[in-house]
Specification:
6 copies of one chain form a homohexamer. The relative contact order of chain A is 0.16. Chain A is elongated and about 70 Å long. By secondary structure, the first copy, chain A, is of the alpha/beta class. The mean pLDDT of chain A is 95. In chain A, the strands form 3 sheets. The first copy, chain A, has a 6-stranded parallel beta sheet with strand order 6-11-10-9-8-7. Chain A has a 4-stranded antiparallel beta sheet with strand order 3-5-1-12, covered by helices on one side. Chain A has a two-stranded antiparallel sheet with strand order 2-4. In chain A, β10, α10 and β11 form a beta-alpha-beta unit. Chain A folds into 2 domains: 118 residues, Alpha-Beta Complex (Aldehyde Oxidoreductase, domain 3), CATH 3.90.1170; 147 residues, Aldolase class I (TIM Barrel, Alpha-Beta Barrel), CATH 3.20.20. In chain A, 44% of the residues lie in helices and 19% in strands. Chains A and B meet through α1, α2, α4, β7 and α6 of A and α1, α2, α4, β7 and α6 of B.
């Protein structure tokens, strides 16, 4: 799959960055033929994501390393829980360690934070989705981590979804003209989402033929009113100022989707380690 | 410079990830010949880092875009402050926006957090340094952000510094043997750092010829005693469990360096935006 | 733009294929400092497409070559008409000639054939669209040539549009289940198109929530009936067995889109040449 | 072999173009663990070519897919004939389908058309050869398809054969000077071919030491006279205005080679399909 | 030109190898804005080659560096002579220095040695040619250095010339069968060279239709006899055991070409340096 | 390991250079299914290096080729000794032959020359080290060949070691300032080496805190005096004008390291061959 090739290239660069022409410490201190067992383990509780990336790191360093996960992406784990069993040449395990953990700690961090948002809106019907505010080069992995956490994905880039914002509306000469232009130019399998910042724009967006409305940075009460006015004629997404304190109230407005930038741009790394045995 | 080529390739991949075969919204809604002015601005105070990456993003989308920074990496800014002035085709500014911000928000986050650690140890002589716990693929940028924040860099990878940890010591048959092996194998411009987790190991590490001692996860009082015993015969670095509450006390132990993983793995993104004018 | 980088890489490979370590004939026979003027000209009438690719070929061989088109993509031309004026080192013009023509002859062929289909359905409201039956590696250029000919594009790949075919329906356990699965998994800016091969399926597809129906290889009378039954509740696309004899009748059935594979897989090359002056 | 690496890279790009970040339809509708059998089959009669490319497509999508051809490149097949048996994960078969067919339909089209030219000159001693008028990026595959059809290849690019055309002759100061320059500059394992457009030039080209004469766009009677004048002192190739109506008469002039551009630039795609079973 | 792209890629890798993430010494010790002048100069006499590679090194490090050669490839120089004037940022001159010199010292070494062989056979009519015994990755540059030294090139690889050796003859079932097979398979602009190790084979090779005979490791007297027997019916190349002591005698046998492996595999580096001014 | 990927890429380019679109001779003359055995053998005595590169060449041409070395890197061999046994398709063995030998002949040449220097200083305590004067693109292989010959490596590039030369000292405003700047900027695991060309500078370099002194082009007597003055307070390296005649005398001065450029820039190729059996 294309994704596999992309991951393989990403991991290749990450390893080059850390290994350069070689690991001078392990080459010096460890016999070439020394085998070892090791485990990846959690130092705090969380949700697992990124197994494929970690596995690819070990595979590229040495395909002979055995990588046996005890859980799957999306599973929860406790502090101290063993996530993956490893066996192979000690030099290679140590060469891969930091790069594998750098992937896992970030992706588990994202999945764990996403799970908290998902749980906060449980029962409301609102779906937690991500944004394009991802780490440059890691978007596919971070979006998979959001799914592992129980969220859903928004569009993957500027190429597979139409989202008309204020800048586009002004440049196109009005909301109606912008939607019409999008309809004429984009292929017929793409829906059209329009950003709406005032209640007054809701009706115009619907009349223009928008399939989805994005309520951006709107007060909760206003959002509820917007949802009422839409009345099922389009999907509704909320964004802006979403955090764990506010998300439940936003969800109760009846929006279909809540997009949360901090899932990917500010999730703290989860504390993981590799231990030789 | 090699770094320039590396940055160019990194930005190229980040843009491909977001643009794919093209920005369907802007292509539809904006006239091809529409020019615009824009600004990158801060929504919260911080320390600037990542200008070169942001500039490269705009340059790759269209070399004709004017990119005029008002500050330099390492400068502080206030909420609402204008960081960069931009001018160019509106389509191209919008195509570059998200990718440029994704770089900047992360790197400013790192620089801003680093600055807080640096200020916390001011006057102690201790130097705040980073670790290898960086985002896969972004290490050089994140290490530059640490410098922008006032910290210094540790080794860049496994290839340009020797750090002997417990695993190496066990595998080599003891601390003395490990240091000797490293001395015999690595080239003569590399120093040797040895991880020490107990006071009892300090003297052995010095006797073995270690140039630097890494005190890992040691209680503060024990660290102070370790520094006293070393007595200037080697450099001393502290790591493990360092946060903004503990860092000053660690610094006052007299260690030379304090390495802080969360500078790069858990700094929250700084809130930045691009506004068309 | 990402497309620019993609084109640059495509042209680079095309030139390598033809030039290898160098043009042995021109290097031997032409003085290095010989300048020349040349023209690209048409030997038969048609519609222009592919200018950007041809320009990139000459630019990569030597950025000092002047490339001055007399027409734009989408313009028609007569037999014998001059399309582009060129000037530069004779060796470089000849090194670029074949590769530039190989791009142009194919893309003009596609645009010219598309124009004939577009003219055949003029006045019916039906839109001619392309398919994924493109030359491996040239899809973006061939889709641009379809636009130059007056057609519109269908989805660009498997990643930016949902098209549920019989195989998917069977595997998912029925049409309704397939649409539901697609709705649950894909992001909310993608519409869902369902292939329908019998009239009996039209109502089920609509009930399942399909946004677009693909009538594949249906007799014209049946297509007309299908359009009537849909009654505007979804978009309708026709495909299969479309040629210049049948396309007008299909269009008159009232379908919104007619997709034509042969636009890209079987358009004969247009006869073009480069002449030194 | 270098050719293998080139094919692998070509297929990689073709798959990326179609799959991007993933096949949204199959991922949604098909269970990850669903296996299937399928066949590639012909909808019209023809000559097989491109098996290696098709196999590489399936292999890259998933090396576990079984790809079992029933024929070999160069074999003829009837309408409805089964060409390849396939088995593997259903998602992966569908992800590979279009890209594999895009290669095969084009290459079989070339082989089938070539076979018709070869049959048209049977018994004359003339050899059908291809030109450099190939699809950018696919030259090696298209030249292999010509061989599968029974034709032979001309030079592969500007680097492995010397062909002196009018432009070279003028620039070099005459035919004799051009041949002499080529002899002095190119390595000693390359022959020299010279384009001859008038009978009057035949003797001069021979005197200059040309190894091969290219009779370009010459009337058939003139060609026959040229062959008579050469009298075996050089090889003779005909080109220009060759089609299925004219090729036999040209062959009967006694030329050694007839080069046909449309073999590769205008062969219509052969109609093939993949059916799940 | 394809060669330009190849050189650019080769230089990029050479610089990455030396610079990695950066030049730690110059970054530390030299102010970023310090400009300097410098010269490349010879410490021993020789023949210049490799200017384009050296220029590309400086250009990639910083396009603003002025690179002004005082001589051209193929020119001779004395010990102490200034070859190139340079001006630019001091950090960048030093970053490029070693890589530029590594190219130049090797290529000047090859040109200088070639010149000695060419002078040794002056007046005999024999041409000194190179072999495929070149440094992996540097073949095009080394073959250009041979031309700078006054030699000519043999084929560039296995793809642009036919050379039938003993292994091929045995496998093909005899010399005649091997030549016939080559004639039937290779395109019609390639000559056929056959290795001949005994006088007895000369007549058979000619009868089989060989265009060129390679006399490998033959005693000088035997070579002279072989040339006599060939009598101008084919070109003759000598190889094996050629050095500066034997080359003149071989040339006087009347062979057309003498191929010398050590031109490229064993030429000692010429002593060059860069001096800041 | 990163090194493995680097080697794989290097070999890929070397094979492309030689094979291009294919080996026209073997394809024509050898049946596709002909198997053969072969041996790599030495025509002169030496020290083995480069086995991994040679193996990678054969592996890339065809992974089914059996490659069985009889010796290991660092072993000595006699003239006529068999180094590697090979078995596989005859076409593939011949396609790989030249590229594999081009690696081996150069790397064995380096190992063999290094061994002579190492033997020349046996018993003195001085260590023979290499320099950055390596073939562009081959540095890691050539440094491994130096180790195979019994030498040690100096820094791998400008990024993993600090060496302050005259240019740096002048630009930094004196030796003391240069060392201080290096200490402040580089990470704390790098030592600082300073070039010293006069006895008068020895004390200043030590006072500035240099860890290593490089005595460049100093007369032997002066070197001995420098070593005496250093008195163990720093490591001492000698360079400049080192050859097999002078190296023993230099070693007896008591320096710790002697760096020899010609190990890598001027070692003549060792004469090796591949013979089919």
């Amino acid at each position: 799959m294309a994704g596999d090739r992309w991951l393989s290239e990403l991991v290749r660069r990450a390893l080059e960055e850390d290994l350069g022409p070689g690991d001078v410490t392990s080459t010096a201190c460890l016999p070439a033929d020394l085998s070892a067992r090791a485990r990846l383990e959690a130092r705090e509780p969380g949700v697992l994501a990124g197994l494929a990336a970690a596995e690819e790191v070990f595979r590229q360093v040495n395909p002979a390393i055995a990588f046996r996960p005890r859980l799957r992406d999306g599973d929860t784990f406790a502090a101290g829980e063993r996530l993956v069993d490893l066996a192979g040449p000690a030099r290679d395990l140590l060469a891969a360690e930091r790069t594998a953990l750098n992937f896992l700690q970030r992706l588990c961090g994202i999945a764990t934070l996403t799970r908290r948002y998902v749980e906060a809106v449980a029962g409301t019907g609102a779906v937690i989705v991500d944004t394009r505010k991802t780490t440059p080069g890691l978007r596919l992995l971070e979006k998979a981590a959001v799914r592992a956490g129980g969220g859903q994905n928004h569009r993957f880039g500027l190429y597979d979804g139409i989202l008309i914002k204020d800048n586009h509306i002004v440049a196109a000469g009005g909301l109606r003209a912008a939607v019409k232009a999008a309809r004429a130019s984009a292929h017929h399998l793409l829906k059209i989402e329009v950003e709406v910042t005032r209640l007054a724009d809701v009706e115009e967006a619907l009349a223009a033929g928008a399939d989805v409305l994005l309520l951006d940075n709107m007060p909760v009460a206003e959002m509820a009113e917007a949802v009422r006015r839409v009345g099922g004629r389009a999907l509704v997404e909320a964004s802006g100022g979403v955090n764990l304190e506010t998300v439940a109230a936003i969800a109760r407005c009846g929006v279909n989707f809540i997009s949360v930038g901090r899932l990917t741009h500010s999730a703290p790394a989860l504390d993981l380690s590799m231990e030789l045995e």
